[in-house]
Target: Smr/MutS family protein
Amino acid sequence: MARHRPPPGDDISDDSDDAALFRSAIGPVRELPPAALPPSRPRPRPGTRMADLDEAEAKGEFLRLLHEAPVEAGDTLRHRRDDVPARVLKRLAQGDYAAQDELDLHHASAAAAGSLLRRFLQDARDAGAHCVRVIHGKGLNSDGVPVLKNLCDRLLRQRGDVLAFHSAPAAQGGTGAVLVLLAPRRG
Model:
């Protein structure tokens, strides 16, 4: 491809002459008003990603518990959070922690027992109790599975303020009662 070269006799003018020549050819111009900046994309609303993940995990755990085999009359209830040492659960099973308060759920309906248990745990924690006993009964009079015992097992596993629980030693109610360790109250 050949480049266009000016004939040898022409003087090459500098850039300022070219700009002046262009302006004279165009004529007078008027400056446009400054244009507004284009609208920026709106910032996304702050999300609650961790809360959503926690909620999904809790729902998954709840659904998993629903599909587990129910607790039978003679079964021992036991559970501890991952951050609670195994020796704490062992001491709880042996009755080494003194129960500072007690709730007896005998003869309560499942709905009433759930409400009573939630309220009792909140009140006990507000009062500064660290260990409580919940008497749910062995479920010998229940048709099939012990309703209150299963309710206690499911509800206690779901609560964030419950560190661990274990069926009480024989002298304190055996498999008809459960000892519950509560997290200390904050603030």
Observations:
- The beta strands are 78-80, 101-104, 131-135, 162-167, 177-182.
- The first helix runs from residue 15 to 26.
